[in-house]
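Recall that a protein's primary structure is simply its ordered list of amino acids. Everything else, from secondary elements to tertiary packing, is in principle encoded there. The following example makes that idea concrete.
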Amino acid sequence: MSDYTKVYDGATLDSGEATLAGADFDVDFAAIEVAVATKTDKAVPTLVNSIGLLDVNGNLLSSEIEISTDGTAADNSDANVMTEKAVVTYVAANGGAPKGCLVYKSSLQTVAGSSSFTPLTFNTGNGVELYDTDACHDMTTNGDRLTVPAGFTRIKVSAGFYWSGFGYEQMAGTISKGGSTGAYIGMPWAESNRDSGTASQHNSLNLQSGILTVTAGEFFRFEIASPVAGWSTQTNSTWFQMELLA
């Protein structure tokens, strides 16, 4: 506070005033002195792990928002303050773990050679859900699908495919939308061609979409096509993911 002493310290008021020839600044100096001496510290949240909304004078604007350890709003929400509602909404939507689903192969899936695309399945017995925060996937019904849940309009889908086979291999992969492999904006494609003789070989594809605009109930499938028969997916390294963004 040493920087302010010369301005509001009452002991130096007279000497400061004396240096200002031709004017009487008693009222001005006294007002500054009173204002500084009576100003309280800015208000701060009193709850642990909480957010306090302040006005321009540093006073609490509304009740505080208490944040739980998982990042979600826990208590003290004031529904009459729009700014606080916005904070609560943001915390609820963005706190905690990422939202979406990731499934992967737990056993081989052998697919006959065909130029048509074949969806990979992630059902009970041949697939595992690493996580599924919003019921995007069903292990018993339509296990080849990841479905957009209610409340989300922006997502990303991605997949990784690792397979084994023999000799010449030509492979194409995509993530289809709504049961059709027809193109859509942001759709991922990948192809691999190799002539490796007769030895057993392995190869991989990785796909990632753009940020997609979607509606609740739309579903996506990870599909593969190859004219070569007898190839099979590898466990763990073959996976399918949906990220729920907004």
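The first helix runs from residue 2 to 8. The mean pLDDT is 74.
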